[in-house]
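Dear colleagues,

I hope this message finds you well. In preparation for our joint manuscript, I am sending the Capsular biosynthesis protein (Vibrio hepatarius) sequence together with its predicted structure, so that both groups work from identical material. I would be grateful if you could confirm receipt.
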Amino acid sequence: MKSVLLTSLLTCLVSFSYTTFAFEDTYKLGAGDKIQISVYGEENLSIEELYINNSGKFDYPYLGQLTVLNKTPEQLKSEITKGLKGDYLISPKVRVSVIGFRSIYVNGEVKKPGGYEYQPGLTVDKAIALAGGFTDRAARNKVYITQSGSDDQKNRVKLTSRVKPGDIIEIDQSFF
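The corresponding structure tokens are as follows:
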């Protein structure tokens, strides 16, 4: 029994880690995200937690001001590695990880409208559940998403649609 539970737990952890890492390969950093920058063997070049502000810029030792908005963690890693290689380090080992995603917002006919922390794999129905579920007046077939950085264009979506960090979900009111 213990071995079955242990195997199940390890399977869940591995699949979650894979999902998170696969997501980070395509994920574009934005204001409100938190990242960690690690340079192996160089604590003075590592940053435990960096909150990305609206400017999307931060000062990094030896490299000056870096811009992170709309870059993937891999692109930022490459930029830092390239900047440190040669003059500062022979072969820098850099890792950039997303440790906190920008919030999503659920508005309209839900019991607890507001901002909620994004989680990889989040769908519209799960986001609505985070917001306490539908109210009695909710039009369950009139759910819209305004995606972060999409010029405020609302798109009608299904409850099984994926949510991205920064998305705004809006549930309309029904007539009955």
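For the figure legend, we might mention the following. The first strand starts at residue 34 and ends at 39. The two ends are 51 Å apart (CA to CA).

With kind regards,
E.M.
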